[in-house]
Write a structure and sequence with these properties.
This protein has about 375 residues and is an alpha+beta fold. About 35% of the residues lie in helices and about 40% in strands.
């Protein structure tokens, strides 16, 4: 009996399981399809009601959406590239504009303090003498007209020497005592002029025999002795004024050419020119190297500037005009060129303020600004 009921229960459970299985499978399948469709819809960005609509939508979506997306991406890419190109063009235009503007202005601004520190000096344009000079080089020498070589009158034996090298002596002062060979008497050798003992060539016990004992020079005047090169000889004449100065130009004196030798030095092929200098204070020492500027012509120019005011800028000679703290190059035309001044025939007006010294500082600033901009 029990076995019978057990069999009926197993059969019943089997039938029940068989009935609910399709429902479970169907539900699982539906959930799976729903999940797939939902993922597909999210991927495509569209909702579908059934399979037919899904297929139609898929065709339309794949074609139109893909083409549109591609087109939009392409357009976006093109627009972006175009924008970049426009930015590049804008950058190029901007750089070109800056360069052009700076080239047109060509100005620099320097504060008054900076200008003072860098040695910039200004003055107003006006008339000046333009003097043409020939530069000379030479030495200070003794004035041979006021130099004496002292000898004994008679041959003899030097008994005493009364002066030393560098002593200042007066005319008639005893220099040495000599015993004559003929009479054996002593006699004095005296100074023939006022001056300085520059050389002492004798000592006690020496035999005179006509040799030079002393050299005395009057140094109240000396010679500026110049060597004139052949190319300049025709421009130099006796009586022309010359400015004699030391190499550092701290000491200078105006003089005249007092002598022009008629002969030419065989070694240097130069002609000697002499200018006599006053030397009462002893500032001109024989042996000093000196320079000189001899005038060979001059002109009263209605407008002239120092040579230090001129600079070459872009293959033009310019002066720098000052306006406030700004400095601007002004091309000028020059006339007669002197040693210190240059005549200006056009480009500058009387009364304008220009840079007379330190113009190279202005030029350097302009060139530095131009180089930085080009870079």
């Amino acid at each position: 009996m029990n076995n019978k009921y057990l069999t009926i229960l197993v059969i019943g459970l089997t039938i029940f399981a068989w009935q609910i299985a399709p429902v479970t499978i169907s539900t699982a399948k539906a959930e799976t399809e729903s999940h797939d469709n939902h993922g597909h819809d999210e991927q495509k960005g569209h909702a579908h009601d059934d399979g037919d609509e899904h297929e139609d939508g898929h065709d339309e979506t794949d074609g139109d959406s893909h083409e549109d997306d591609h087109s939009e991406e392409g357009d976006s890419h093109d627009d972006h590239g175009h924008d970049s190109h426009e930015k590049k063009d804008s950058h190029d235009d901007h750089g070109h504009g800056d360069e052009h503007g700076e080239h047109e202005e060509g100005k620099v601004e320097i504060s008054s303090d900076a200008a003072k520190l860098t040695g910039i000096q200004v003055q107003k344009a006006g008339p000046a003498i333009v003097a043409m000079t020939t530069p000379l080089t030479g030495r200070i020498t003794l004035n041979e007209n006021t130099t004496a070589n002292v000898r004994a009158r008679f041959p003899g034996f030097v008994k005493a020497v009364h002066v030393n090298l560098g002593d200042i002596v007066t005319k008639g002062q005893k220099l040495a005592t000599v015993e004559s060979n003929e009479s054996l008497n002593n006699y004095s050798v005296t100074a023939p002029m006022d001056g300085v003992i520059l050389r002492r060539e004798t000592n006690i016990g020496d035999v005179t025999n006509g040799k030079e004992l002393f050299v005395i020079a009057d140094l109240s005047t000396v010679w500026a002795k110049y060597h004139i090169f052949p190319r300049d000889v025709s421009n130099i004449k006796k009586g022309q004024s010359v400015t004699v100065h030391t190499l550092d130009e701290k000491t200078r004196q105006n003089a005249e050419i007092s002598m022009l030798f008629p002969t030419t030095d065989a070694l240097s092929q130069t002609v000697i020119a002499i200018a006599e200098l006053s030397n009462a204070d002893g500032i001109w020492r024989p042996g000093m190297t000196i320079e000189g500027d001899i005038k060979v012509g001059e002109k009263q120019a209605s407008l002239a500037v120092p040579r230090t005011a001129l600079q070459f800028l872009e293959e033009e000679q310019v002066v720098f005009i000052k306006s406030g703290n700004e400095y601007e190059p002004r091309p000028v035309t020059i006339g007669m060129t002197g040693t210190k001044n240059v005549e200006i025939t056009s480009g500058l007006k009387r009364g304008e303020t220009y840079v007379s010294a330190g113009s190279f500082v202005i030029k350097a600033d302009i060139l530095k600004g131009t180089a930085a901009h080009e870079h």
